[in-house]
């Protein structure tokens, strides 16, 4: 059974838990996955996000998330202006994506340092979200747990090296998933943990030679 | 940990320990979240503060939503009721507060989804209005919110709180049922009377469809929140008078689940039928969709 504050809650900026609160969380998790402040963003809105997004402030909500705001932040209505003032260029387009959840967005970002990331996710109700793709990899990520994501060389030992680092930090892995596009090339791993993942643990993982990119997404 | 799934379970737990429903729910949340009573209470107290601020903001706002369909009614109603009106004070207040919070929601203000954003005006409308008339200390209203949450947990177990799943009966119907049970407890009624109020409120909103104009949480949602808050008060007052629902609370919830499943998808938040497909709604939608 759920908790009391799943029923009375969340505290959020209206008007819609899926189109506003969930959209903010999608923007925020996209920024966390990029790992730095985005400077240029292309947002593709699908389905109901494309159709009723404007009236629900979905564009403002995603911009707010990209700025790092939470879904109860009263600056959300002003987020488009605040993003522009911060030098963040965001373009919104409507895009029909086959077989996608009705409330889906694809967020393609280029960061301040030139780092790039593409995040696809959907807002599934009550402010909850699922990230379904990162940089083309199929994933399933809710953002409810502390999450470590790595893109690494697809060869023996890399996965165990990463989990060893976590074990040494006494971090218990709750969910784990490894996927790849082709054998022996590049793989993506997602580790979700009950405990918070420290910056130190992240730094150790990020410095493993076979790990090309590491991302740390903390629950919000 | 004390477990409950139905309203009958919840009432038996309350009666066994001679406790209020809110006490059982607080204990449940303390166990579940592995924190202490103070932390759980404070979090609910903060929810109440967000509700109160939304009422204040909405009562004084003349702003319109992006679509132009809603905004400013709570203020207008307040001005009218200062010197006029057929209804009594508690009903007028419930209407105004519920409108205020729902308008704040539509205008991208801060609210508490209770249980959803679309139905966020009903609990503050009913509980704050009843609280004023009953001269209830703040703690009574916070406790009432726990009772309301308990009813919501039970409905969520056996039916739904989402318009996309069960139509508006799942959102505004559930919110009214939750508020009715809470108001009974605030007024000194028994757990059984809370259950009767819950059943009476939900019964009256069975079958309510979700057909919002242009897919927005505005029409008919904002004004429906005012009606929902009043229905909660009617149900609470009936139950406090000792009047019972012939169909018991858990059976009403089961009926709402069945009705939700039978509702066609076109009337479950897709805006493919009903009010959303009226000529006026289509005109509004075409205009909104054409912009930008």
From TrEMBL, chain A:
PROSITE patterns for this protein: ACT
Any one GO MF annotation of this record:
L-serine ammonia-lyase activity
Q: Which cofactor does it need?
A: [4Fe-4S] cluster
Q: Keyword check for Iron, yes or no.
A: yes
Leader sequence segment = none
Please, one GO biological process term? gluconeogenesis
**Pathway membership of this protein?**
Carbohydrate biosynthesis; gluconeogenesis
Which is an annotated Pfam family here? ACT
What keywords are assigned to this protein?
4Fe-4S, Gluconeogenesis, Iron, Iron-sulfur, Lyase, Metal-binding
According to UniProt, the reaction catalysed is: L-serine = pyruvate + NH4(+)
Q: Which residues form the ACT domain?
A: 147-220
Q: Please give the superkingdom of this protein's source.
A: Bacteria
> Record's family?
Belongs to the iron-sulfur dependent L-serine dehydratase family.
Q: What is this protein called?
A: L-serine deaminase
Lineage of the species this protein comes from: Bacteria, Bacillati, Bacillota, Negativicutes, Veillonellales
Automatic annotation (TrEMBL), chain B:
Could you list this entry's UniProt keywords, alphabetically sorted.
4Fe-4S, Gluconeogenesis, Iron, Iron-sulfur, Lyase, Metal-binding
What's its EC?
4.3.1.17
Instruction: Cite a single GO BP annotation.
Output: gluconeogenesis
- Per the UniProt entry, the signal peptide is none
Its recorded reaction(s) are: L-serine = pyruvate + NH4(+)
What InterPro entries does this protein map onto?
Fe-S_L-Ser (IPR051318), Ser_deHydtase-like_asu (IPR005130), Ser_deHydtase_asu (IPR004642)
- Cofactor(s) in the UniProt record: [4Fe-4S] cluster
Q: Name one GO molecular function term.
A: metal ion binding
Q: Which Pfam families match?
A: SDH_alpha
State the superkingdom: Bacteria
Q: Tell me where in this chain the Serine dehydratase-like alpha subunit domain is found.
A: 21-276
Identify the enzyme class.
lyase
Is the keyword ATP-binding in the record? Answer: no
Q: In which pathway does it act?
A: Carbohydrate biosynthesis; gluconeogenesis
User: So what family is this one in?
Assistant: Belongs to the iron-sulfur dependent L-serine dehydratase family.
Q: Which NCBIfam families match?
A: sda_alpha (TIGR00718)
**Name of the protein in question:** L-serine dehydratase
């Amino acid at each position: 059974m759920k908790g009391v504050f799943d029923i009375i809650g969340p505290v959020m900026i209206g008007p819609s838990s899926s189109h506003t609160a969930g959209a903010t969380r999608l923007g925020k998790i996209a920024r966390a996955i990029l790992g730095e402040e985005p400077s240029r963003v292309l947002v593709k809105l699908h389905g109901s996000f494309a159709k009723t997004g404007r009236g629900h402030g979905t564009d403002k909500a995603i911009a707010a998330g990209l700025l790092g705001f939470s879904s109860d932040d009263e600056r959300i209505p002003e987020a488009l202006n605040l993003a522009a003032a911060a030098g963040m260029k965001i373009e919104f387009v409507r895009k029909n994506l086959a077989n996608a959840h009705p409330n889906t967005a694809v967020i393609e970002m280029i960061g301040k340092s030139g780092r790039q990331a593409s995040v696809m996710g959907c807002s599934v109700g009550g402010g909850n979200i699922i990230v379904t793709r990162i940089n083309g990899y199929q994933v399933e990520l809710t953002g409810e747990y502390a999450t470590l994501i790595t893109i690494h060389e697809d060869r023996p030992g890399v996965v165990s090296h990463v989990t060893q680092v976590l074990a040494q930090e006494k971090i218990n892995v709750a969910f784990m998933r490894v996927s790849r596009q082709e054998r022996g090339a590049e793989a993506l791993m997602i580790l979700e943990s009950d405990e918070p993942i420290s910056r130190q643990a992240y730094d150790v993982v990020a410095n493993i030679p076979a790990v090309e990119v590491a991302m740390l997404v903390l629950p919000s | 940990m004390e477990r409950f799934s139905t309203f009958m379970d919840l009432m038996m737990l309350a009666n066994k320990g001679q406790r209020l429903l809110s006490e059982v729910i607080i204990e449940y949340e303390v166990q579940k979240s592995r924190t202490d009573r103070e932390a759980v209470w404070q979090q609910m107290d903060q929810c109440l503060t967000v509700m109160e601020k939304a009422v204040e903001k909405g009562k004084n706002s003349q702003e319109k939503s992006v679509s132009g369909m809603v905004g400013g009614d709570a203020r207008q109603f307040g001005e009218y009721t200062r010197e006029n009106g057929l209804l009594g004070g508690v009903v007028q207040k419930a209407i105004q507060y519920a409108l205020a919070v729902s308008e704040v929601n539509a205008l991208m203000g801060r609210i508490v989804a209770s249980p959803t954003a679309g139905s966020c005006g009903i609990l503050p409308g009913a509980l704050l209005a009843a609280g004023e008339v009953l001269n209830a200390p703040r703690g009574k209203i916070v406790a009432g919110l726990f009772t309301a949450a308990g009813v919501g947990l039970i409905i969520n177990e056996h039916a739904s709180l989402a318009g996309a799943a069960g139509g508006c009966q799942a959102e505004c119907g559930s919110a009214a049922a939750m508020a009715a049970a809470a108001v009974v407890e605030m007024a000194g009624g028994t757990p059984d009377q809370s259950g009767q109020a819950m059943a009476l409120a939900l019964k009256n909103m069975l079958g309510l469809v979700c057909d919002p104009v242009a897919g927005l949480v505005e029409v008919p949602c904002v004004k429906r929140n005012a009606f929902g808050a009043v229905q909660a008060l009617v149900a609470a007052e009936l139950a406090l008078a000792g009047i019972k629902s012939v169909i018991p609370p858990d059976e009403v919830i089961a009926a709402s689940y069945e009705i939700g499943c039978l509702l066609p998808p076109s009337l479950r938040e897709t805006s493919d039928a009903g009010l959303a497909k009226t000529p006026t709604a289509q005109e509004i939608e075409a205009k909104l969709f054409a912009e930008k």
